[in-house]
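Researcher: Let's run the pair from yesterday's discussion. Sequence first, then tokens, for each.
Model: Starting with the first of the pair.
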Amino acid sequence: MFMRAIVCQEKLRERYISEVLASVIAPFSEQTKRQIYEWQREGMSTRWMADQLGVTRHKVMLLTKRTSWPSPSNLS
């Protein structure tokens, strides 16, 4: 029963993340926003993310500093 609760909590967390990322309006696709979120969870810098995506650091920072952007530190 304990494992089912953990699995259920993880599914709810993933659904919440997906809904929040979908609601963020940005010049990035849903898949790219998810990738940026995952990189942010792994502790990658905005400069590294920008280099990987081929955009300016400013564009990545505008996205991750929004109040509607989910903070990995709050959802770990």
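Model: Moving on to the second of the pair.
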Amino acid sequence: MSLKEQYIQDLTESCKYLDAQVAAKATEKTPYGIWKIQEAVDGVKFQLGLDEVKNSSEDLSAFNTSVSNAETYIATL
């Protein structure tokens, strides 16, 4: 598996997690008081910004939608 394929697989799993957390209206926080879903959003955004991902031919719209939906949910917390 190439590095790009690994990133896409990781993004797929991470966005499934984000979607599930939004659907469940998750409100868990880390021991540091940060929303767990916010940490997941930050991780996905970091990976989306990697050259191997952003310069690939992959359609990233579903990942961006998951991030946007999660950010909208976080704003309601």
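Researcher: Give me one sentence on the second I can quote.
Model: The two ends are 38 Å apart (CA to CA).
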